[in-house]
Fold:
Amino acid sequence: MTDPTEPYHSIPYLVGAARAAGFTGERCLDANIEALNHLARPEQVGALLDRAERALARIESLPGLTRRDELAYRAALTAGSLTADSVRAAVETFKAEESFYHYPTYRQAVMVMKAWQEALTLDGVPGSISDFGIRPSGAVNLSSHQDLCDPAVIDRLTAPFDPYLDGPFADVLRERRWRVVGFSVNFTNQLPLALRMARQVRRALPDAVIVFGGTEVCDDVRLAREPKDYWRLFHDADIIVPGEGESPFCDILRAVHDGRGFDGIRGILTHGETPAVLPITYENVGELPTPAYDVWKWDAYWAPEPVVLYSPTRGCYWNKCTFCDYGLNQDRPTSPSRERPVEKVLDDLRAITGIGRTVYFSVDAMSPRYLRALCEALGESATPIRWSAELRLERTFPKRDMARHLRNAGCVAISFGYESGSQRVLDLIDKGVQLAQVPAILAHLKEHHIGVQMMGFTGFPTERPDEAERTYDFLLDHQDLWSLAAIGTFSLTPGSIVARRPDAFGVEVLPLPPTQDIRRHLPWRQRPDGSGNWVGGDDRRIGEDRRAALRRTADGRPFVGGLDTAHTLLYFAKFGAALVPGDPGGEPRSRLTRVALREIPFGNVEQFTNVAELREAYFLRLRQDGVTSAAMDAWLGEPGRARPGAAHAVITPSGLIFSLGVEGGLPPADRLGELLTLTTRARGEA
Structure:
């Protein structure tokens, strides 16, 4: 489960290499979009709404409610803002230019999708789905092999997708006697479904060679606390590819075709292998074939036109940032930098424009030299594209008039890892950026109407409270120079330079709880004050006023307002650096969701257990002695806060739920509208 607005690009690269090696007969399945489109059908949504009604009736008949009941009741109430046709209509809104680019109408579709995702959890685990992903910190621990290797836990977590897995996916497995089945797993929240699907493949195709790869799989292997345990996790796999996959995949296909074993194939692990040094392959990107983007049904995605992910480079030319631990790395923050010759990039882009004109350059960073050469070539090309990418804040941008070159090349937006508003912290990070030069860089881009997305974080070792605040204040002081911003919280990862050289940063790495079999993040203590730091939660030193001041849209990923999303890129291409035109609170052209009213036997539904409390309970148990689904089940089974009393529940399209007393009946419509306006404003929503 991931972004339904665009496909990931790993499989087109693999298939492009396989076709060049002479292999055909592939069937490429973006199970994410196929499953979501299947579940969005009116008959499926209608059946879900019926189940929500039954859940409401069941919970209302209980003598007392647990936290699990309260979470489920919230989800079932949320479904009341939907109709059987709502989700299909929302998908059509995203796909039609006229409605997609009318922001008030677009937001109607977004609110439908958020309500639908919450309702889907009724069939699985409470509070488990958000932003088109399975939450990694909720009722199930996605770093615990106890949870991930338990079929009952995985089946319960992925139960909302039963109609797809038992229907269309099972049909694909019966189409042919498939000889090789590969899973490309790129994000943690895709892992549970991939594991379940592999189990299903093994039952249906016992003789097939099952291969696992992708950046998430690489992390699961290289970050395993006990190397032998990653084969417990990937129990149904015959082969794991822990690095880049084009060459290993072709070699695997050759071995299967020739009927021989897999000995001697570079870049793979065969079942049971646990070498001290992982066999990671780094491809020669200059020699790779053009990716095969025709493998996807592009009209299946939820956007008015295709947005294509493409990588002209791999790795990072800087590769020094001390916090970074990304991708297929071994002894550096990320993989080594490699550049595809610009003339080959132009050939690839000519093929891509047969599908779409909007491209996201999915790169770690492009060197200034390469970026300039690419821009000059794109500016002279007869095949124009609109594009965005993540780049470094290079001080030479204004001097070399880079913004003009970027704009002439079709660039509509840039993302920058600005990281911190403290020069001292930036120097510790080894970012190679002088903060005093950043405003001139941003002003240069603004002058050429290029949208800017700023990313940073607080909580780096030794950072003072005033430096954390400055990370926000720097952006607020220059808020006319950027379009979107997101500030997160530092987390220590095992492969980072900070974790490898903790003494240099005054850090003591603390023992992980026993439940964390995949070492995604490390707890640490700052010397000399001894303050402990754990992943999860916001930086409590930052007030809500500063956080709210950075928000410019109502939504995050994968919608407009999410950094580097397809929808955001299309809005930049259409409306420029302003991103959202006109009055964002204007009237929609059609209403896809509604205010729902329901008589309920509880007088305090707004005080029911919520997802924020679930997440807080998860991290509290993680910090104490570790957390698994069993521990969270116990917490969910404790009594909730429901108080008997007749009331009316009001469910707003934005997901706000509150109760009104029944004395005198419901307020008149104008008063109810006033109440809704006040409450949604209090939540910072349009």
